[in-house]
Amino acid sequence: MSKIKVMSELLANKIAAGEVVEKCASVVKELVENAIDAGSTIIKVNLIDGGLTEISVIDNGSGMDKEDAVLAFSRHATSKIYKDDDLYFIETLGFRGEALASIASVSEVVLKTCQGDAGTLVHMKGGQVLEVSSCQAKKGTEITITNLFYNTPARLKYLKSESTELNNCLTFIEKLSLSRPDISFTLSNNERILVKSSGSNNLLKTIHEIYGLNVSSNMLEIKAMNDDFEISGFIAKPSVLKKNRNHFNTFVNGRVVKNIEINRAIDDAYYTYKHEGFYPIVVINIVTDPTLVDVNIHPTKQDIKLSKIDTLAKLLYDTIKDALYNNLLIPDAIAKPNTYSIFESEIKPVEKIEQTEFDFGSEGKIIHNEEFKKLKLYPVGQVHGTYIVAENEDGMFLLDQHAAHERINYEMITKEFQNREVSITEMIVPLSVELSPSDFNIFMESKYVLEELGFKVEEFGINTIIIKAHPTWLKMNYEGDNLKYIVDLIIKEGHTFSKDRFLDSLAKMTSCKMSVKANEHLSLNEIEKLLDDLVKCDNPYNCCHGRPSIIKFDNLELERMFKRVL
Ligand code: ZN
Ligand code: ZN
């Protein structure tokens, strides 16, 4: 009995409407997903010139009989979707058959497939069958695509450069490897292996195979659930960051997805733990009832819509934030001389992938925050009016005085914001600010936030506001500057204005302004107070912009540096 059934015309048209093969990576995606559906445990993708010259995918899956091998190329053939209703409950990776027919119509294809006995070879060009014959083959399927878009010049010109096409394929295979640690994936270009995962079914090991030791040894495990979602996976410590969001690897029911709300929740959770413009590496599996997933979005795209996204976003945010909070380390002076210099080149050399194994169960030396809060650091002195040297039984500490003070003030102000009772000071000279008509409008819409915080703001003539009082936490002598900044901030945020984000920006700005600067002399007493206040912070390790505030030199490291021990 044929495994592939012919769908109803109606459904076929529904799918065909959105179906596009636009780049080498979309060909790779279709072929690899077919291989996964065939139950393969080993999948090899071999590209020549980034796929522009040749794409071949070899798997060890179930293979096809002669009848299916031919039918696989007919339009509207699929083994996965039978009825209209099934469209709404698709748990598989995407759409089948349809895409293979599209690919075959714009390229030359050689398919060799075998279920264990005699193999079948199908050779097609431009959608025409050139040959169907028996052949020698191993169990599984090998499909080779050449001359992509040879008969559709309009599409051919949309193919990008070799390096862009290759990068898209790499990104896809990397994400797929992380979503399926149980399958071994290999991707090579011009016979050079660029990605290799072992199919060990150990996610951390797969992370190691994709990102290397530096990343895999700096991951924190997360696991949590609520009524509708179950999340699990690994998130990077802030010591290994990337310059873009491409390494947000998120999977919903095993499918690689992109979702703005999910990304925002991840970003927000890392908010005060990293520099702006830097993004973490995360690998997160989300499991949910498939009826909560909207599949009406184009099947070749990774965007999805989820019902109850708010509860998922909150679960992700809380879980990631807790994991970071509970496991943060003081940057280690020796192991990471430059915290942010660990970016890998875009295409990884194979040597990196073949690094020696390491113990995936091992834990770094973790100082939990609650322990840190009990630490006593003793002042030693100040260097260049900018850095503080301190010590305790465990070693030596180097602090950036501005970053440390800024962190203390940031947490103080944030707590102040949560405080219901605000004490207010009337300004001796009220501050008036003249605005453009449109800015004035935007400002007036959000003015209530300022009032809730304890500012007294009034209209004062045409497009002018006057500030008569402010909460006492606003540092004396800096009110003018701060207030102007606050007004600008409200106007800048405009209609996207959110009270929480505004308050956070405000806390950051104000704490920066009121903290000691570089080149400011501090007495030993002032240093001692700063050290005592810093250890009590919830996150003493970074300033509110993510810059490190304290670096530890372990006793043992000091001894090693001076070769007292080996
Ligand atoms: Zn600052
Ligand atoms: Zn800062």
Shape: elongated
* CATH-defined architecture of the largest domain: 2-Layer Sandwich
**What is the CATH top level name of the largest domain?**
Alpha Beta
Strand count, sense and barrel status of the largest sheet are:
8 strands, mixed
Q: Note the total helix count.
A: 18
Class of secondary structure makeup: alpha+beta
| Average residue-wise pLDDT | 81
- Share of helical residues: 25-40%
- Side by side, the strands of the main sheet go 7-6-5-8-3-2-9-10
Radius of gyration: 29 Å
Strand elements, count: 24
Count of domains: 3
Which runs of at least 5 residues are low in confidence (pLDDT < 50)? 9-18, 78-96, 334-366
Are any ligands bound, and if so which?
A: zinc ion
CATH superfamily of the largest domain: MutL, C-terminal domain, dimerisation subdomain
Span from first to last CA?
A: 70 Å
CATH topology of the largest domain: formyl-coa transferase, domain 3
The percentage of residues in β strands lies in 15-25%
